[in-house]
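Hi D.,

Good news: the full-assembly prediction came through. Inputs first.
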Amino acid sequence: MSDAVAFTPEELKKLDAGLSELLGHYPVDRKRAAMLPALRLLQEIKGWCTPEGMKHVADKLQTTVERAYEVATFYVMFHTQKPGKYVIDVCTNLSCALRGAEGMLKHLEVKLGTQAGTNGDKFFLRETECLASCGTAPCFQINEDHHENLTKEKVDKLLETLV
Amino acid sequence: MNVEKVVTRNWGKPGQNTLAGYKQHGGYESLKKALELAPEAVLAEVKKSNLRGRGGAGFPTGLKWSFVPKDNPKPRYLAINADESEPGTAKDRFILENDPHSLLEGIAIACWALGAHTCYIYARGEFKYPSAVLDKAIAEATAAGIFGKKLLGRDFELNVYQVRGAGAYICGEETAMLESLEGKKGWPRLKPPFPAVSGLFGCPTVVNNVETIATLPAIFEKGAEWFAKLGTDKSGGTRLVTLSGVCNRPGTYEVSMQTTLKDLIFDEQFGQGMPHGRTVKAVIPGGSSAPVLTADEMGVALEFEAFKPLNSMAGSGGIIVMDDTCCMVRCLWRVTRFYAEESCGQCTPCREGMPWMTRLLRKIEEGRGEPKDLEALMQVATSIAPWPPIGLGNTICALGDAGALPVQSFVTKFKSEFEQHIAEHRCPYGDKPWGAFGEFQ
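Then the structure:
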């Protein structure tokens, strides 16, 4: 993944190949339906939904860039700003809260020197919706990798790997 | 108490999440049986089994299928709801992880019965690992000639695609899910028309939960009568539930329709009781939107009909236990905040009401509450969705009800605790509102 907002030729080739495969999953007159998988692919390639990328996706899906923005801003997993290197999504809903999630969030804030909801260069710590780990609480995801049954010891070990 | 296992019967067997392993344990034999039957006969079997939807509403599956109009020339779709995100619910995820082919075989059986040639599985975006397992299973089944141009060699094309969401609770609502599958933001549609008549791309679409469809192979393996007999008069089979919160052994368990909440929390094979010295104060029985129950109501069986007299619901099987040292105001604040965050913003009562209730609850929890706040809380909740009974909501979809029901049930059943916060201008539990396991260690 290059840091530049503009596509490299390889990135564009990868995106276009992926998009044409995705479009094969839908009726020919329903290209817009591929919007979520298409934006996911864009984000995998660029790290976030770049304005240029969304324009490109919209063109390929034969829709307007506003439609791409509408979707990218509605779903929390799409980033319309460049996120920190590590996006940490912490579940603080009831099942996790009853198993120490509030304390875990505080622990993370102190350890990472950040506040939940604040995007930084290295960390973007967020509270998130229930992650279906209720019987294995508390839990969080680091760049979508799921970690559950968390303890202080486990969390500290995981944080050490985030360089 | 001996629960005959259905959905989980093969979990943990070697290679169960691969095609080879699945076939070794009888996999895709049920599909062969079903393909010997005419589609109408498959539908009749499903009706006979008394299978009810496991996504939350408990709607009879066969009946839902029968709503697809026979004379509509448009293509038909099956859409699988794997957007598991109701707080307290973690079961479909384990089906995808442990036994993905049981879902795929169920899909093939359902598509045969419905005459659907395309199935989309909508998995929530956060399911990185479960989705990877499922993608691999779809690729295996396609390579083996189960899916594709010919369903197990029959002249019946079936293509199955997984589509991943991107973080929106609302997309678990069936019409929001269809909007999302069409590449839009997840704004629920007005019903009617119901999806069976006009769903994905305006075509007849059946939307079923993962667990519901993953149950079909067992029904065709052992028979609809066997399955119906496992359950009660109106709810066939067994079901998966997730036990969370305060108890000794939280987890995901397959229970019978006769298992009670009390059995689930205290039985050795399930929750193994409460930590030393603690008692149950409250139980949410069906995902955090289900009206809360008191300890006196724990005798209820985990079956769809049994919750009606209690004005609550079996919902998605997410059971959350709170002990006698949990603060009910704080717990409710967490629940309400979730619905405020996840309201899609389409209907005013929900968009404005959920954050309002969240602010009121925070105010009460922090000791700044006034007696009129409790009244306001109930008034706002009631304008979103009066209760009881369940189902009177004033919004397009049930998210309104989902956020209003907890408020009304918590305030009604634990009123003195709310009043104590207001009278004492503080939370009686201080900085320890989360009960026996609330400290992060």
